[in-house]
Design brief:
Largest sheet: 9 strands, mixed
Oligomer: single chain
Radius of gyration: 22 Å
Amino acid sequence: MKSVFVLFDSLNKSAMSNYGSDAVKTPNFERFARRAMTFNNHYVGSLPCMPARRDMHTGRLNFMHRSWGPLEPFDNSFPQLLKNGGIYSHLISDHLHYFEDGGSGFHTRFNTWEYIRGQEHDPWIAMVKPPIERFKEKFDPRNYDFERPSKRLQGAINREKIREENEFPGPKCFKSAFDFLEVNKDADDWSLMLECFDPHEPFHAPERFRKAFNIDSTKKVLDWPRYEEVVENDQDINTIRANYGALVAMCDDYFGQLLDRFDEYNLWSDTALILSTDHGFLLSEHDWWGKCRMPYYEEISHIPLMIYDPREPDSSGKSTDAITQTMDLMPTILDLHGVDIPDEVRAESLSSIIKDPERQGREFAMFGIFSGPIGITDGKFVLYYYPPDWSANGLREYTLAPHHMIVPFSVEELRTSKMANPFNFTKGCPLLSIAALPDAPRVPMNDGKSFADFDTALYDLENDPKQERPIVNDEVTQNLLKAVTRILNDHDAPSEMYEWYNLKLAEPA
């Protein structure tokens, strides 16, 4: 068996025509849907980027124990388990977060890996005295701030070296994947993870895709919305959405070129192909841009998944309404390659659903960010449950790798550390327990933001799919909260978390 896992970042279902979008035409995603099984109720787990990838590696939720951080030394990792089982694994990625303090340990679990430079604020191009005045003429100040060193300044500097289509990181990722397939198409027992940062912001697409969306290149660049409430006028909103659409169209185009290789090399006979994303993105829906700060609305949490399994040819073109989550990808990949699934995993292979799309998946999907609201859905209702006081003391982080996104834990944080007993997934290892200080640089506080803009809300997804009218239903809310406590218990959540969220500690499983 061979497998290719294509992971996009921030790919919205609402931008894919195979999921019913009329905003962006994605003929190659449609083409793949005719081969694959489409999952209609696939949800995120831990958020955002690196916590989601830890779920993918380990097959379990991790947001209740720590914030954004490295792969822990005791964690299971699907490419490492593949390697241990004699399956060769290779990663191609332009995802810059792997190469920050808080992303270490993920890419090194693969046999080999390739990093494509230049996305977002990747510290790639060294420019001591950037042309600030020229940048101010080119980039819209509402999206770009050049008065001080920043992510957005580095992003503008990187663009100085990204002009022709073949210089864009996304196309370069796919080119590397095509080279891998050319060299290894006749070999067996390998797994390729092709991970593209696109269509993550900034929404910077090659010119031929921008032209298709009638984006006016004479105006200042408006393609990197801040995670804030919408204040732009309709014209500016449409410009940002068009830039996102152009980037999705690029992803679709290059994914189609990957499908061409599957056709040319007859990989459909023995190679599984998976397409998904880590989370979505609000493009002015609910009057917000971005993710993390606001409730994890459907646009953020309800994400695409399509799987082609050569062992189940009858599944081609079918879809399932089974509830699944990001963490289910780990045991699915292991199952494809005949590798045993560790006891610590709290997810299940999706092979049984691919075999029988009427089979029930999860009863509930729970998702969240460390110290933020908890989302829980049964497919009919969704609850975004906020703690009584998100800035209150009492919550702690548990880790043996104390790093935030781009910096280690501070000395002030480390002074609060003490040893904690093992959890059910740490293989007997005790951990550092560190106070989750309110001013620590956790997502989204690392950008000076907070979760304070909202409160607990319940939505009826069947009668209000756009989530425009929160409802009050105590019976549904209590049922969903009971599910939250059961899932927390199954993941051996820290005892103080129940008190911090004002939840009753579940009975032992």
